[in-house]
Amino acid sequence: MERALVLFSGGLDSTTTVAVARSTGFEPFLLVFRYGQRHGVEVERAVALANELGLAYHVQEIDLRAAGGSALTSDEIAVPRARDPEHIASGPIPPTYVPARNTVFLALALAWSEVRGIDDVFIGVNALDYSGYPDCRPEFIAAFERLANLACRSTTENGRRLRIHAPLIDKTKAEIIRLGIELGVDYARTWSCYDPRPGSGIGAGGALPPPRACGECDSCLLRARGFAEAGVPDPAAYYRA
């Protein structure tokens, strides 16, 4: 099997992307980012999922919190809540946009793939049911692929070509969910929430229970609508006051 590098957050889209990569004959290597996000539980879920899937992974530490400018990396900026899912992608870019995030992620993926002789990079961006982020558009992916093939020794000297795969980019959330179910994805293990809430009760041995998804941020709302449109129950554990 050829190897592919997959940007992996443990979320619905990136987990489906891993399944797509495997179904098309690739052996995925997962690159997980701890970038200073408030919803750090996604890194825990990503690592747990990688281990369950039996896939090699690396957790890359970077600090996008220092740059600021996003509700996902700053405690001073509120995560939007209870917006109309029909209008999430049509309004102004929301404060959950993280400046240059996918550019930074793909640049680091480029370094990892070049050193390891990997020519295929998968990313789970989506340009339909999403929050309007500019670095999730087909134009961005195509431009980065052109840049990558100009920037690397392996492509300019050795005749290789790097391919950026975005297999979900033109799919609705419902279509992504149906595809994932066909490929055997267990969505109960994925994490989508931007603003997790404390779990309820006390766990075994007095441990704190795992956090729950808020059910009100854009990511939770888009996920819930996707499951509803797919006609499939959403297995996420949502917070209830």
Structure characterization notes:
The chain is an alpha/beta fold and 241 residues long. The protein has a single domain, classed as Rossmann fold (3-Layer(aba) Sandwich), CATH 3.40.50.620. Helix content is 34%, strand content 11%. It contains 7 helices and 5 strands, in the order βαβαβαβααβαα. The protein has a 5-stranded parallel β-sheet with strand order 3-2-1-4-5, with helices on both faces. Helix 1 links the parallel strand 1 and strand 2. The radius of gyration is 18 Å and the shape is globular.
In CATH, the architecture is 3-Layer(aba) Sandwich
* Helix-strand category: alpha/beta
Write the CATH fold name: Rossmann fold
Report the helical percentage.
Answer: 25-40%
Uncertain segments are none
- Main-sheet strand order equals 3-2-1-4-5
Count of all domains: 1
Taken from the alpha-carbon principal axes, the silhouette is globular
Number of helical runs?
7
Content of β-strand = 5-15%
Can you tell me the CATH class? Alpha Beta
Outline the fold blueprint.
Layout: E1 2-7, H1 12-23, E2 26-34, H2 41-53, E3 57-61, H3 101-115, E4 120-122, H4 138-151, H5 153-156, E5 163-165, H6 173-182, H7 218-230
Parallel strand pairs: 1-2, 1-4, 2-3, 4-5
Helix pairs in contact: 1-6, 6-7
